[in-house]
Amino acid sequence: MLQVDSGVYIGSVDDLNDRQMLVDASVSHILSVDSVDPGPMLPADGSFVTKWIDVLDDPTADLLSHMDACFMFIDEAVKGGGAALVHCQMGRSRSATIVTAYLMKRHQLGFTEAYNRLKSVKREVQVNSGFEDQLRQYEAMKCEVDTSSPSYKQYRLIKIKFKKFSELKRGAAELPKEIFALDPALSSSSEVSYRCRKCRRTLFRGSSILSHPVGEGASAFSHKKFSNLTGNAQCTSYFIEPVQWMEPALLGVMNGQLLCPKCSSKLGSFSWCGYQCSCGRWVTPAFQLHHNKVDEIRQIQMQK
């Protein structure tokens, strides 16, 4: 167990067995980031405040969604005059990810600086590639998990794909309700909306669009034997988060068509394995509605 910051320690599961060391370090909170329930190893007298994040040390595992809650847990210990021990099995990857996120948020550091500060204390830490990507995304979100941001929504969809891939392939997966945006046809809003060009049914709002970096244009399609694309191809589709009206089409399949829920016109398609946008960029997973099938609707503010 090593002290990384004032009131913050990083360690392994073995440190739970040394009660005297925990007491001497004024540890009041124990944050376990592990796939194994730490309960049997914790003191039974309830002398510590505990929190368990059930996660594997796997690049596809999700720690980003827990970073703010973990920060608050550690911060509670420090502000209360105690200390927090953050541990996983070996104290190398999962706990290092959470401690790095804490340092980033507490001291307003970028990922590289915070990670190097941790490595200066414990040289053997090594977060896996997936956790490093999540820490960089945390930095991009200014150390505040913004569930409404397009980047987080795309991240969440990717995690669901990895977590439920085998279930999706055999048609057994149930999709979390929180991944679906509210059906805009069921409520009013001043936000930009998009309607079916044929029947005028509202399909999605501007906040549901998941933007992506522009691809390499025609050169990205050079692998295709027959390609009519030349120059810098533009995006001809909207890639969006799933919307409530899509749910019946998504259940139990890896890909399929997206039809207007009112007139059944074909609007686009979806694939959990992704599609290549006309600009050349791959988007995974992809929920794609074609520009020529929808109209953008903006409300005009009339001046009195």
What is this structure, in a nutshell?
The protein has about 300 residues and is α+β, with helices and mostly antiparallel strands. It is built from seven helices and 14 strands. The chain starts with a strand and ends in a 7-residue tail after the last strand.
What does this structure look like?
The chain is an alpha+beta fold and 304 residues long. It folds into two domains: 2-145, Protein-Tyrosine Phosphatase, Chain A (Alpha-Beta Complex); 177-297, Metal Binding Protein, Guanine Nucleotide Exchange Factor, Chain A, CATH 2.170.150. The protein is 26% helix and 21% strand. The protein is built from seven helices and 14 strands. The chain has helices spanning 19-24, 67-79, 94-107, 111-121, 129-140, 150-169, 247-250; strands at residues 2-5, 8-12, 27-34, 49-54, 83-88, 193-196, 202-205, 237-239, 255-259, 266-271, 275-276, 282-283, 286-290, 294-297. The protein has a five-stranded mixed sheet with strand order 1-2-5-3-4. It has a four-stranded antiparallel sheet with strand order 8-13-10-9, with no helix packed on it. The model has no long low-confidence stretch (mean pLDDT 90).
